[in-house]
Design brief:
Rossmann fold; single chain; five-stranded parallel β-sheet; 5 strands; 54% helix; alpha/beta; globular
């Protein structure tokens, strides 16, 4: 399947919003390739995101993240699950918006925290982003990032829905349908 207006689909949203799970379902339905940008980034760096933050600092991580995004934005017929902070740089928001359909998976702080707790790899692979950590961190970071997700996204989708329903909703928009941008 192809749509010349949207030759690729980017999934944005906070940790635990379901970007990887939904992305795989979506890619399968389209017959496209799927890439998790964070997994690619870790493979290229040879270390986890948490180690990159600890050893090289957040600016170095964000530089690598932007470089990976530029590469992925050139790949047609790909569904790309981005890192939760990809929207922090204005250039990334513009590149996302101009390079494909950007679907924002909106997740509540409680659901994000619940999913993060259920994922055994989160603690080892992902750094705390504030001194508080935990649910308070999720609430704080989500509040700060929400306007940036909104700016980058073409459409927003409630992440509490099943991956199959989210994929169907995103395909509907990809095919020219509409959805609310809450």
């Amino acid at each position: 399947m192809t749509n010349p207006m949207y030759p690729r689909i980017f999934l944005i949203g906070y940790r635990g919003s379901g970007k990887t799970t939904v992305g795989r379902v979506l890619a399968d339905r389209l017959g496209w390739s799927f890439v998790d940008a964070d997994v690619l980034l870790e493979a290229r760096a040879g270390k986890t995101i948490a180690r990159i933050f600890a050893e090289d600092g957040e600016p170095a991580f964000r530089d690598l993240e932007s470089k990976i995004l530029a590469e992925l934005a050139a790949r047609a017929q790909h569904v790309i699950a981005t890192g939760g902070g990809i929207i922090l740089r204005p250039a990334n928001r513009s590149l996302l918006h101009d390079s494909g359909l950007v679907a924002w998976l909106q997740v509540s702080p409680g659901l994000a925290w619940e999913r993060m707790q259920a994922d055994p790899t989160t603690r080892d692979r992902r750094p705390n982003l504030t001194p508080a950590g935990g649910l308070l961190e999720v609430q704080t970071v989500l509040t700060a990032r929400e306007p940036l997700y909104r700016e980058a996204a073409h459409a927003a989708f409630p992440a509490e829905r099943s991956p199959e329903l989210l994929a169907a909703d995103i395909l509907h928009v990809w095919n020219g349908g509409t959805t609310s941008r809450s």
